[in-house]
Design a protein that fits this description.
77% of the residues lie in helices and 0% in strands. By secondary structure, the chain is an all-alpha fold. It has one domain. The protein is globular.
Length: 168
């Protein structure tokens, strides 16, 4: 039996995959569009926030739909150990990423041609950060409902990325 939440998870996953494919096909026009100032903000800031927001929203929806399928999903005892596991995965991922980018020589036009790889790596680290924040909020957070915890995690992650992009 397929739950409606499983269908919505599949739809979210396919929608994000399709959105990335469209972004890849329209990479050059989008790059030109976001070179201009939008609302007085640099275009790169706007495009970064949109990308992070879309990835975080997709991750949030996938976790929310999983919670709706199984109410005890966020109460599993494993969530108490997940911050430490994700910290190890994050450090290992950074090491692998550094080794990959220092050992591979990329062509000069790799930014546009291989944008999908960059988007994939960025999505991976964004979702890893989202799950890190979620696991910390579950482990050391107040006794909030699961929906409030998920909402707080989404907005905290988004605010952290906006501040990171704005100040860097």
């Amino acid at each position: 039996m397929i739950y409606k939440w499983s269908f919505l998870q599949l739809f979210t996953f396919l929608f994000i995959g399709s959105l990335f494919a469209i972004f890849h096909l329209l990479a050059s026009p989008l790059q030109n569009l976001f070179q201009a100032d939008v609302l007085g903000l640099p275009g790169s800031f706007v495009s970064s926030v949109l990308f992070v927001g879309i990835v975080l929203l997709a991750g949030h929806l996938l976790v929310y739909f999983q919670h709706r399928k199984k109410e005890t999903f966020l109460q599993h005892p494993l969530w108490r150990r997940v911050p430490f596991i994700l910290l190890a995965v994050l450090l290992l991922s950074f090491v692998i990423l550094i080794v990959l980018f220092t050992s591979i020589s990329l062509p000069p036009d790799a930014g546009i041609d291989y944008r999908w790889v960059i988007d994939l790596f960025a999505s991976y680290f964004i979702l890893l950060f989202y799950f890190m924040v979620l696991s910390v909020m579950i482990r050391w957070g107040e006794g909030l409902s699961a929906e409030k915890t998920l909402q707080r995690t989404f907005f905290t992650s988004l605010a952290a990325y906006i501040l990171l992009v704005f100040f860097v």
